[in-house]
Amino acid sequence: MAQGSIIWRCRKCGNRTSGTCKCLRAQYYVILPVGRRRRWKAAGRSKKDAEKLLTRHLSELHQGVFRDIKATGFSEFADQWLQDFAATRVKISTHRSYKGLLEYHLKPFFKNYLLSQIEARDIQRFVSSKANCKDEDHKLSGRSVNYLLMVLKMMFKCAKQWRLLRENPAEGISRVRQEQQEMDFLRPNEIVALLKHSEEPYRTLFLTAILTGMRRGELLGLQWGDINWIDNLIYVRRSLYWRLRSETENDSPRWHFSSPKSVKSIRTIVMSPKLREALQIHRINGAISPQDLVFCSSEGTPMDPDNMVKQQFQPALTFAELRRIRFHDLRHTYTTLLIAQGAHAKFIQSQLGHASIQTTLDRYGHLMPQMHIGVGEKLDHQIFSATLNEVPVSG
Predict the structure, then answer these.
(1) How many CB atoms are closer than 10 A to CB 360?
(2) In the chain, N or C terminus with fewer CB closer than 10 Å?
(3) Facing residues of 126 across strands?
(4) Residue 124's closest CA among 170, 83, 76, 93?
(5) Quick one: pLDDT at residue 395?
């Protein structure tokens, strides 16, 4: 016993003879001598893996570097990670997203695993099952699968820092191929139709979205003090977020202000003359908000974003006989308007608040054909100028 041992055990049947118990929970255990006590380590259903685990642990014991890691189930760790790590570092909406991913995808797949049992091949199998699911209703897009993988990598990195794992099994897993999503936006005549069939104050709200590219939460969190009427600028300083009813306590308000999506999202946007005029009229005729909001309900309270989309934006599209697009596509509409004017990609990045110009180019680069028009002729002119016709052309 001083050198450790391996046994096959089922807590239900009490069977200790290898292979004679077919219960799903039956597996090999490694028993290690740690001081005067014995430590049991689950090693899975493969005896070969159990032998490797025993060899490694004994080597660590002799070297004095063995860490007695507690056997923690994946579901238990996931709840702990969500509460102690994610809740203190991300926005409420992101925390809600993480919770949904854990409940509907990660926990169901890894619920029978101890944290220390999960290997790279298990994670690869999980990724493949989500990306290649034959049931179209449950198949996830490449973007969604990569988001799941990102969360897993973050969780296992945290588990390693908490000394619950020696290595991060998700570290070397590659992202799946991501299809280029078709981007929808409104053409100029469609913009006019949408505004024509919208009522105030929503007409001005939609116009502001189209001419600034602000996100929905940024629009609804905009205050009159954020508008520079002298220099025709709009400062994006905050975003309006709404909690779920289950996330609120007693009579506390469901809405709250928070910082925008990222550091780069705190930005300055150029205001067009037509938008300036529309906002000035809206300031005179619109409701007064105790929070000094530009866009609010008729009672002056913060506007519910989901109600706004369902009760105003989507009906306006229907009345204008336009296809059903997302409210976020108004942001894409603003970008295409800038591209059509030949705006520089760096300026577009600053107006949209992207963290890097690479994000801007990845999403909108295919809409910038004018950037390549005449490049060859310009190169020739730059080098040869007036003597172009004197340069012999080999042929």
Answers:
(1) 21
(2) C
(3) none
(4) 170
(5) 47
Q: What is the pLDDT of residue 388?
A: 46
Q: Which residues, 6 or more positions from 233, have their beta carbon under 8 angstroms from its beta carbon?
A: 227, 268, 269, 270, 271
Alpha-carbon torsion, ordered 193, 195, 196, 198, to 10 deg: 120
Residue 2 exposed, middle or buried by CB count within 10 Å (0-12, 13-18, 19+): exposed
The superfamily in CATH containing domain 74-161 is: Tyrosine recombinase, N-terminal domain (1.10.150.130)
What's the average model confidence in pLDDT over 56-81?
A: 74
* Cβ partners under 8 Å of residue 196, min gap 6: 320
- Classify 206 as helix, strand or coil: helix
Instruction: Tell me what pLDDT residue 70 has.
Output: 60
Which top CATH class is 188-370?
Answer: mainly alpha
pLDDT the model gives residue 202: 95
199-233 burial by CB neighbour count: b if 16+ within 10 A, else e?
Answer: eebbbbbbbbbbbbbbbbbbbbbbbeebbeeeeee
CA separation (Å) from 221 to 4, 95, 202, 282?
A: 63, 20, 15, 16
Tokens of 19: 């292979």
- In this model, does residue 371 exceed pLDDT 70? no
- Alpha carbon distance 318, 82 (integer Å): 41
- Average pLDDT score, the chain: 83
Structural tokens at position 62: 């002799």
Query: Over the stretch 285-325, which tens digit does the pLDDT of each residue have?
Result: 989 999 999 999 999 999 999 999 999 999 999 999 999 99
How many Å apart are CA 10 and CA 33, to the nearest integer? 21
**Nearest residue to 319 (alpha-carbon basis) of 196, 210, 188:** 196
Q: Where are the domains of the chain?
A: 5-63, 74-161, 188-370
